[in-house]
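Example 4.3 (complexes with small molecules)
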Amino acid sequence: MTASNAPLLSARDVVVDYGARKKNSFRALNEVSIEVGAGECVGLVGESGSGKSTLGKAILGLVPVTSGTIRFDGEDITRATGAQRRALASSIQVVFQDPYGSLNPAMTIGDILAEPLTASGAGRKEARAAVADMLDRVRLPKTVVGRYPSEFSGGQRQRIAIARALVRRPRLIVCDEPVSALDLTTQATIMDLFIELQRDTGVSYLFVSHDLGVVRRICHRVAVMYRGEIVETGEGEQITRDPQHPYSKRLLMASPVADPARQAARREAWLKLREPVH
Ligand code: ADP
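Answer. The structure with adenosine-5'-diphosphate bound is encoded below.
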């Protein structure tokens, strides 16, 4: 396969052991393989502790990979050096669950958004224009540039974090539970924003969530993780309509819905499925 028809991101048989040199090392990822195509949104779902963030971090170079290979645009980035990672930052970005934790509280929104650009050599005028364009795209007024992160709601802060991730026009964004801290209505508007930005920019997402319901609207494909392994992969609609693996069924039942009657029915069904998955 040549670089031109290779998927944008390809992880093959990735193993991550935490504390690998100690006696009590823990295998957080066990031979995980996943691909994300250009312009594609791939959901990664699973309960807390199943290894989703670890896979995201391995792709971002934030945890060392024990074995396996991660390729981006055909290039092996599994053990990219610090300089290679800095260069990759213009192509691979991240949005975390807690936008407040990831936005420097001492910087104005204008500086937060301009910094990735000026740090990579853009002039001030060019950066200002790009920041204004990004604010438009995430539907925030230009007047926010002089304000600080603490002055905004959770949903607005997540818009700022998304704008910062997109400002260098990356090709892939790892979204790590980006709507989990938001109320259901705000979740819906931020999901719509992710969809719109993907349509307009062609960016790819690896979209991590513990909630199968959250990814169904946004993701083309969904991979279900359980105890460090991918147990099922399929089209978003298909997995949410007809999950095959017992664990996927449980996840679907656990996904919150706004209607209390439906939520109660799901909870009943979920309790029946509660026995451990083998
Ligand atoms: P998820 O994102 O699905 O909640 P994580 O990838 O955060 O799961 O964690 C997967 C497993 O690895 C969990 O059992 C967690 O306790 C463990 N883990 C995560 N980070 C570390 C670490 N730095 N050291 C040791 N174990 C870790």
